[in-house]
UniProtKB/TrEMBL annotation:
Record family assignment: Belongs to the zinc-containing alcohol dehydrogenase family.
SUPFAM superfamilies found in the cross-reference section: GroES-like, NAD(P)-binding Rossmann-fold domains
Keyword Oxidoreductase in record: yes
All copies of domain Enoyl reductase (ER), residue ranges: 10-341
Provenance organism: Brachybacterium hainanense
Domain of life: Bacteria
Keyword annotations: Metal-binding, Oxidoreductase, Zinc
Protein name: Alcohol dehydrogenase catalytic domain-containing protein
Pfam families: ADH_N (PF08240), ADH_zinc_N (PF00107)
Annotated Gene3D superfamilies: Medium-chain alcohol dehydrogenases, catalytic domain
Keyword Transcription applies: no
Listed cofactors: Zn(2+)
Length: 343
């Protein structure tokens, strides 16, 4: 099969030929029709994730068709249209049994400790637990982000932020995750402020119903616009600067949700914890989407309350994946998700 692989962290990803994956007992092989280019893929390429071994095939958000299933798989068969969360949970531990598969301690991740979806075929472990059937009305391009960015945004808004109608949410970073958060929060009845340094990203945020402001002095402006601070904030980019500014933007007893990864030089940076203590703020992590949450997500899409297609900014071909991955570090990815179509 064709795949995109890199042999050194930061090295140029290349188009290579690799053996097809074989479905193990309980697993499935999915022929990839669409895969997203996510900032987490860029972090892995930079060597910020210790689980990645070289040479490596990146990619962790995808949609496609089941190619083959291993012994014991009962719920899926070749030809089924599917996606999967980027967290492949074991399906057996206490967290999985409680419906919190996104924090499964035995999880595996395509594009990190497993070969990823920048390939014609990708392996999904514990297929009966992790595969999600895709309705025919959701096309592959839109579905690619359900396993990571759009799904992650859904979990962050509804489960971690516990956002309610009438509340104010400030979203730092209006890329693929941020625009997904904005759409989901607006649909929930919240007032949303989008923050970014990019004019196209801010325009995309406005198109989804957010009030958009430049990142310069954003915390002070948000406190002024909201009469004391936002009820909730979200760092959808992942940097010490955006995380700190988001926390500084909260009203007393507000809630901050950290979605963007803090890796590399930002992994151990201090946050304004004195403000967290003095104002009784909540700082919450958010990691993917539980398999159990797909039912509500797909129902909202079917009812046209949400449109994952609106979070897609650019569609590229398979051969363009190397350049698209490298461009994320140059701030050249543009507004919204980049999705590569393989077929």
């Amino acid at each position: 099969m064709r795949a995109i692989s890199y042999a050194a962290f930061g090295g140029t990803p290349e188009l290579v030929e690799l053996p097809d994956p074989i479905a193990p007992p309980g697993g499935a092989v999915v022929r990839v029709h669409a895969t997203g280019v996510c900032r987490s893929d860029w972090h892995a390429w930079q060597g910020h994730d210790a689980s990645v071994t070289l040479p490596h095939v990146p990619g962790h958000e995808f949609a496609g068709v089941v190619e083959a299933v291993g012994e014991g798989v009962a719920s899926f068969a070749p030809g089924d249209r599917v996606t999967a969360p980027f967290i492949l949970a074991c399906g057996e531990c206490a967290q999985c049994r409680a419906g919190a598969s996104q924090v499964c301690p035995r999880q595996r991740q395509p594009g990190f400790d497993l070969p990823g979806s920048y390939a014609e075929k990708v392996l999904v472990l514990a297929a009966d637990h992790n595969l999600v059937a895709l309705p025919e009305e959701i096309d592959m391009r839109a579905a690619a982000g359900l396993g990571c960015r759009f799904g992650t945004a859904y979990h962050a808004v509804h489960v971690q932020a516990r956002l309610r109608a009438g509340e104010t949410l400030a979203v730092f970073g209006c890329g693929g995750v941020g625009l997904s958060v904005i759409q989901i929060a607006v649909a929930a009845g919240a007032e949303v402020i989008g923050v970014d340094v990019s004019a196209p990203a801010l325009e995309a945020a406005r198109a989804l119903g957010a009030r958009a402001i430049d990142a310069t002095g954003a915390a002070e402006r948000i406190r002024a616009l909201t009469g004391g601070g936002a009820d909730a904030t979200m760092d959808a980019l992942g940097s010490a600067a955006t995380a700190s500014a988001a926390i500084e933007s909260l009203r007393p007893r507000g809630r901050h949700v950290q979605v963007g990864l803090l890796l590399g030089a930002d992994a151990q940076r201090p946050l304004p914890m004195s403000r967290v203590i003095a104002q009784e703020l909540q700082v919450l992590g958010s990691h993917g989407l539980a398999v159990a949450e797909y039912r509500d997500l797909l129902a909202d899409i079917a009812a046209e309350r949400l449109d994952p297609q609106a979070a897609v900014g650019r569609t590229i071909g398979f051969e363009e994946l190397p350049e698209a991955l490298m461009a994320m570090g140059r701030g050249a990815a543009g507004a919204g998700m980049t999705v590569a179509l393989l077929s």
